[in-house]
Amino acid sequence: MAFFDDLRYSPPMEARKTITLDPISCCAPVRADALDEVQADMLAHSFAALADPIRLRLLSFITSSAGEVCACDLVEPSGRSQPTVSHHMKILVDAGLVTRDKRGLWVWYRAVPERLDALRAVLG
Amino acid sequence: MAFFDDLRYSPPMEARKTITLDPISCCAPVRADALDEVQADMLAHSFAALADPIRLRLLSFITSSAGEVCACDLVEPSGRSQPTVSHHMKILVDAGLVTRDKRGLWVWYRAVPERLDALRAVLG
DNA sequence: ACATCACATTGACAACCATCAATTTATCGA
DNA sequence: TCGATAAATTGATGGTTGTCAATGTGATGT
Q1: What per-residue confidence (pLDDT) applies to B124?
Q2: pLDDT tens-digit readout, A76-123
Q3: Which of A26, B43, B89, B100 shows its CA 20 to 30 Å from the CA of A88?
Q4: How confident is the model at residue A31 (pLDDT cuts 50, 70, 90)?
Q5: B10 touches strand D (CB under 7 A)
């Protein structure tokens, strides 16, 4: 019971093996960074492209169609104006998640599966 | 060559089989939404939690340590002030990506692998 | 009770972001 | 060359976000 009281108000077992109750050294150090600052900046930029519901739906339109999708088919189902859709698509393209291919008057978008795989890898 | 010129300035093969050159029907329709608006809102909220380099590094500190990490060990390596780290950790907790456990003076964080798995699933 | 410590909250500010109307740019058919 | 069309850009606006100094809150040991 004194043991459990100790546990409740102290650093965990692993830490308690090597440290004292001195607040300065209360905590076991975390491991070396898995992500350096440059990697974190790049990844954050990619995830930011996914951090908007409209962009997620636009991307889902594209990934759920096996091939390409015309920009003209994204405006109406997204419920946003043409300039807004163009703005969001630019963000997805700049993040490398989709490619843009202009042919004549129309622009065609394709998902970039390798890029989505890379983001998946970071999460697991 | 006339054939390729056509290809270059027209909708793709699949579309050309069923449509005319009338601009109104120029494009093959995208498939039904894979993501409805409610799902998109929730997912965007989760990805927004990952859309900051500091939060990605904080999360990586936690996931790269097998067990828990003390909040007191996150301030110095993140290079941000204590209130700023507290702010970012709240965002990660609210997004369900980490859990918060206060024991005595210290707060301990743990990753929530199921939640990271869920986000991974969306990307693949 | 009191001083101390870990962490959260508040308040303020600058930077960034989503959105749309209006306009511009690029491409096509005639 | 001209009119029409798809998409990008511009400019403006309201809302959100990252940051820190100062302060508040709750737990601890004495």
Answers
A1: 82
A2: 999 999 999 999 999 999 999 999 999 999 999 999 999 999 999 899
A3: B89
A4: very low
A5: no
Question: CA–CA distance from B113 to each of A121, A124, B97, B118 (Å)?
Answer: 13, 8, 8, 9
In terms of DSSP bridges, do strands B69-70 and B106-111 run parallel, antiparallel, or are they unpaired?
antiparallel
Whether the predicted pLDDT of B26 surpasses 70: no
Contacts A–B by Cβ distance under 8 A: 163
Instruction: Supply A58's token pair.
Output: 């636009």
Of A51, A65, A67, the CB nearest to B51: A51
Closest residue in A to B113 (Cα) is A124
DSSP state of B9: T
Q: Which residues of B touch A48 (CB under 8 A)?
A: 47-48, 51
Are residues A30 and B123, on separate chains, in Cβ contact within 8 Å? Answer: no
Alpha carbons within 13 angstroms on the beta-carbon side of residue B32 total: 1
Tokens of A27: 């905590």
Tokens of A70: 């015309």
List, for residues B45-94, the tens digit of each pLDDT value: 999 999 999 999 999 999 998 889 999 999 999 999 999 999 999 999 99
Q: Of B35, B36, B8, B11, which Cα lies nearest the Cα of B22?
A: B11
Q: Between chains, do B44 and A53 touch, taking CB under 8 Å as contact?
A: yes
